[in-house]
């Protein structure tokens, strides 16, 4: 039996849900995969249920925001993908690079309005 004790923390970077490897190997993984890419109706994305590091092979559970859809809806209004970022409170990467973290959906809306994005 494999006991999973490490957890990956989901965040949005450039409009994509990603997570850093909890083992700190330096890898970042996207948390959505394309399913049926050859489907004539178009591919759909599937949310990963666990984190699988393609570098060090760690498997971990993922901590997701309870407001995942609302966060993406607000960030999706931003015209430039590299401005579509959200980090949970005290996220190590956000703290390290001194970028906002722990923003509520309303904080993101206010930020959009401040920059003329409705």
Q: Major sheet, described briefly?
A: 3 strands, mixed
Tally of discrete structural domains: 1
Helix-strand pattern, N to C? EEEEEEEEHHH
Q: Could you list the spans in which at least 5 consecutive residues all have pLDDT below 50?
A: none
Distance between the termini: 50 Å
Q: Taking Cα atoms only, what radius of gyration do you get, to the nearest Å?
A: 15 Å
Summarize the structure.
The protein is of the alpha+beta class and 118 residues long. It is 20% helix and 25% strand.
What does this protein structure show overall?
This protein is α+β, with helices and mostly antiparallel strands and 118 residues long. It has one domain (7-114). The chain has 3 helices and 8 strands. It has helices spanning 68-75, 92-97, 105-114, and strands at residues 7-9, 11-13, 16-20, 28-30, 32-35, 44-47, 51-52, 59-63. The strands form 3 sheets. It has a 3-stranded mixed β-sheet with strand order 1-8-7, with no helix packed on it. Strands 2-3-4 form a 3-stranded antiparallel β-sheet, with no helix packed on it. Strand 7 and strand 8 form a beta hairpin. Helix 1 (68-75) packs parallel to helix 3. The N and C termini lie far apart (50 Å).
Write the layout of secondary structure elements.
Elements: E1 7-9, E2 11-13, E3 16-20, E4 28-30, E5 32-35, E6 44-47, E7 51-52, E8 59-63, H1 68-75, H2 92-97, H3 105-114
Parallel strand pairs: 1-8
Antiparallel strand pairs: 2-3, 3-4, 5-6, 7-8
